[in-house]
């Protein structure tokens, strides 16, 4: 490049290009004896097509990363040996035949073909001869593309790359290879195992400090987090000091850490010996007896025990002991903070979004979806809400798969939560496009439908003597919290305020609403695993159940859904679950919506997930946004007001005295914002087709960048008195069905990219089919 000032630009580029081509040809022929394109290089006429990005193997987006005791290093996978691998961590592929994903460039409307090359990786940037080349495959697949070469070997580092073909306006093809992605296989392999996982440590410094007296120095890390303290101290003599950790201050800013916090809000005081001189102290956390029981998920040995804390105080002789640096190692799974970025004109809505998004990251400290710090046990309901909010904030799918695989063999006691296994599997398939996971667990999912509890009414019940030993064995149930079998839960805790005084009877409307949704989910999963007969059977079974549901639970006088047979009581829960899952007849929808809106938040933070979903699916976004941004005592804002920086187990301390301050089942607003306010949901597995159906009512302006398995989707809107502007950007190899609301306008004109378009009118929405990848602008006038 230093020669360029002495040459004309035209001659310099021509010379460099010729030399580069000759070098590439020599390397391609002499070293690997493979075609030029197979080396990830390009010849003349291939300069303009962008390469595939976002490579994943078995859905891992960074399998090349190496950690040491949970801390990210710059080491290569090739440096991992039998001698050091026990001190290093990496995400290993456990399948002999993994699957590959990549992001097709946005300029490519539809991928026409692809070619994958896989080789063993070697030191010094060398590559071995290819293990496998797919050849040119005429196919648009870019998600979960199967490896069909020779079975991979254990404990081996491989690398792969991909190129694609597209058709331009002249009908010609173009192609270029991506860069290599490295991955390592585990020491033992199966045909379709899940990858291993890594929990990482993120080093953090406090954002503020305050000396409350000469012997008490308080540090604030800004947010609560599962972490371990790290101190660098200078002491004039051998001494000792107390480290105080806590989630809550006594009376807010300027007060000490609360040493008697309520419920399961955490506090810990640790005394450490301090040596004369300057030393760094990794402060050990003693395990809690309750959350380390046999049923709890344990911390990885390379991480050690953690405690949730926001505040750290040094208490002792601060005259002879001088803190040089106070920090903490914040523990969580790898999380992409910018995978989803949302902002709106409503500052409270933005605060609640950040609260929920951070909760997903911070509660991932074991690598599994848990109920919170009090028990550290996976529960199906926690996993379902956690999954939806995780998928709404980061395109990471393997944590769901791990948790579901665990729950199948470690079920909990609520009836509805057994049925939620099917919903978790369904959403995972739709968002990740991974049919192999479905095939792996399909047989174990079938008993979780609880069809064995169905009787001549067409409904299921846990209270009619059908929970036999064989049935409980089929769902892998063992005694849980003293419960010998499944019991209906509806909501939790079981107080009149949280259940809206739900009346429990033998046949429960909420249980059977979940049964209906589970049957529908199972029909989709059967189709995914090429079981058309089973898919049709589940579809018919769902239709029959809907008829039975309405026959037994629908009140013909009011149109509302009753709690169960033998009662006339209609609760929020019976109606919101039925509405969310599509069980309310069209003619009764207005009455049910009116009733639901009249009940407000007469449910727990768990129940709020389905209340918001019911409102979102039936265009009641203004009411949903009012609930999300409410500042009443039963609100997400109240969690912030009481001092938490993660969603709580309940609306506040008064509603569940033993609650903890780190419960991700309270994150419903995160997935509501993505799925309903901004309206982004997969129509086909793996976002091959997406629906964009915003529900903007209650918000004047909002924008989001949302990462999917196929790339980023951007949606923004701005509502003005005389017009509404929308902008949408879709990744390559994706099409969208766009539904835009036009409430308040009669005979509106819709313009797409400056051109008037005729959409299909559907229930107050204009629907435009087959919107291609790229950026599009829509305006109503």
Main features:
781 residues, alpha+beta, Immunoglobulin-like, Jelly Rolls, 5 domains, seven-stranded antiparallel sheet, 16 helices, globular, disordered N terminus
Question: What does this molecule look like?
Answer:
The protein has 781 residues and is of the alpha+beta class. It has 5 domains: 1-31, no CATH class; 34-190, Immunoglobulin-like, CATH 2.60.40.10; 200-332, Galactose-binding domain-like (Jelly Rolls, Sandwich), CATH 2.60.120; 340-677, Glycosyltransferase (Alpha/alpha barrel), CATH 1.50.10.10; 691-780, Sandwich (Maltose phosphorylase, domain 3), CATH 2.60.420. 27% of the residues lie in helices and 26% in strands. It contains 16 helices and 32 strands. The strands form 6 sheets. Strands 13, 14, 15, 16, 17, 18, 19 and 20 form an 8-stranded antiparallel sheet that branches. The protein has a 7-stranded antiparallel sheet with strand order 21-24-25-26-32-28-29. A hairpin with a 5-residue loop joins strand 10 (157-167) and strand 11 (173-174). The chain is globular and about 80 Å long. It starts with 8 loop residues before the first helix and ends with a strand. The relative contact order is 0.09. The model is unreliable at 1-48 (pLDDT under 50). Residues 338-675 form the Alpha-L-rhamnosidase six-hairpin glycosidase domain. One of its GO terms (molecular function) is alpha-L-rhamnosidase activity. Residues 679-743 form the Alpha-L-rhamnosidase C-terminal domain. Pfam families: Bac_rhamnosid6H, Bac_rhamnosid_C, Ig_Rha78A_N. Keywords: Hydrolase.
């Amino acid at each position: 490049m230093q020669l360029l000032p002495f040459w004309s630009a035209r001659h310099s580029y021509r010379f460099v290009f010729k030399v580069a081509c000759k070098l590439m040809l020599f390397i391609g022929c002499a070293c690997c004896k493979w075609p030029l394109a197979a080396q990830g290089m390009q010849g003349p006429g291939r300069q303009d097509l962008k390469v595939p990005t976002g490579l994943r193997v078995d859905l891992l987006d960074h399998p090349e990363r190496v950690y040491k005791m949970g801390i990210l290093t710059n080491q290569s996978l090739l440096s991992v040996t039998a001698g050091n691998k026990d001190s290093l961590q990496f995400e290993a592929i456990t399948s002999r035949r993994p699957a590959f994903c990549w992001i097709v460039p946005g300029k490519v409307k539809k991928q026409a073909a692809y070619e994958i090359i896989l080789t063993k990786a070697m030191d010094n940037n060398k590559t071995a001869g290819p293990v496998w080349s797919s050849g040119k495959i005429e196919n648009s697949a870019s998600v979960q593309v199967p490896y069909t070469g020779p079975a991979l070997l254990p404990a081996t580092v491989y690398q792969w790359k991909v190129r694609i073909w597209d058709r331009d306006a002249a009908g010609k093809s173009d192609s270029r290879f991506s860069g290599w992605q490295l991955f390592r296989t585990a020491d033992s392999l199966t045909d379709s195992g899940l990858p291993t996982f890594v929990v990482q440590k993120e080093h953090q410094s406090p954002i503020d400090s305050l000396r409350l007296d000469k012997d008490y120095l308080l540090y604030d890390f800004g947010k609560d987090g599962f972490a371990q303290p790290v101190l660098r101290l200078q002491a004039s003599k051998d001494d000792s000091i107390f480290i105080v950790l806590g989630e809550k201050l006594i009376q807010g800013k300027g007060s000490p850490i609360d040493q008697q916090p309520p419920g399961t809000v955490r506090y810990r005081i640790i005394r450490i010996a301090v040596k004369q001189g300057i030393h760094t102290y990794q402060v050990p956390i003693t395990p809690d007896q309750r959350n380390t029981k046999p049923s709890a998920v344990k911390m990885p040995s390379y991480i050690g025990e953690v405690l949730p804390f926001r505040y750290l105080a040094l208490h002792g002789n601060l005259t002879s002991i001088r803190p040089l640096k106070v920090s903490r190692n914040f523990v969580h799974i790898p999380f992409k903070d910018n995978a989803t970025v949302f902002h709106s004109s409503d500052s409270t809505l933005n605060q609640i979004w950040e609260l929920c998004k951070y909760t997903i990251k911070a509660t991932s400290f074991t690598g599994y979806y848990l109920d919170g710090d009090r028990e550290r046990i996976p529960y199906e309901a926690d996993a379902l809400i956690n999954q939806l909010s995780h998928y709404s904030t980061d395109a990471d799918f393997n944590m769901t798969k791990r948790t579901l695989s665990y729950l199948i063999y470690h079920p909990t006691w609520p009836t509805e939560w057994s049925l939620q296994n099917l919903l978790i599997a369904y959403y995972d398939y739709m968002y990740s496009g991974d049919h192999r996971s479905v095939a792996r667990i399909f047989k174990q999912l079938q008993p979780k439908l609880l069809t064995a509890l169905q009787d001549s009414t067409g409904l299921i019940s846990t209270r009619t003597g059908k929970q036999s030993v064989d049935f409980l064995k089929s769902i892998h149930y063992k005694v849980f919290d003293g419960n010998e079998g499944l019991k209906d839960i509806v909501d939790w805790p079981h107080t009149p305020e949280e259940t809206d005084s739900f009346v429990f009877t033998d046949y429960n409307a909420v249980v059977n609403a979940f049964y209906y949704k589970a049957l529908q989910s199972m029909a989709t999963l059967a189709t995914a695993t090429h079981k058309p007969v089973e898919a049709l059977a589940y579809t018919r079974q769902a239709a029959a159940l809907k008829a039975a549901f309405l026959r037994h639970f629908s009140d013909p006088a009011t149109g509302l859904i009753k709690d169960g047979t033998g009662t006339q009581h209609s609760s929020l829960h019976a109606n919101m679950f039925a509405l969310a899952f599509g069980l309310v007849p069209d003619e009764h929808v207005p009455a049910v919506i009116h009733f639901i809106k009249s009940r407000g938040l007469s449910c727990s933070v768990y129940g709020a997930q389905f209340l918001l979903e019911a409102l979102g699916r039936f265009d009641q976004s203004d009411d949903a946004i009012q609930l999300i941004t409410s500042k009443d005592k039963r609100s997400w804002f109240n969690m912030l007001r009481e001092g938490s920086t993660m969603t709580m187990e309940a609306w506040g301390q008064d509603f569940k005295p033993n609650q903890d301050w780190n419960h991700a089942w309270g994150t419903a607003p995160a997935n509501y914002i993505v799925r309903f306010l901004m309206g982004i949901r997969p129509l086909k597995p793996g976002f091959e087709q997406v629906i964009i159906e915003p529900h903007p009512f209650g918000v004047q302006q909002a924008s989001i960048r949302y990462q999917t398995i196929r790339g980023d989707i951007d949606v923004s809107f701005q509502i003005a008195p005389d017009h509404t502007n929308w902008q949408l950007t879709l990744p390559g190899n994706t099409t969208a069905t766009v539904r835009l609301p036009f409430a308040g306008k009669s005979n509106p004109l819709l313009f797409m990219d400056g051109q008037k378009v005729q959409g299909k009118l559907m229930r107050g929405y204009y629907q435009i089919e087959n919107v291609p990848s790229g950026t599009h602008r829509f305006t109503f006038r």
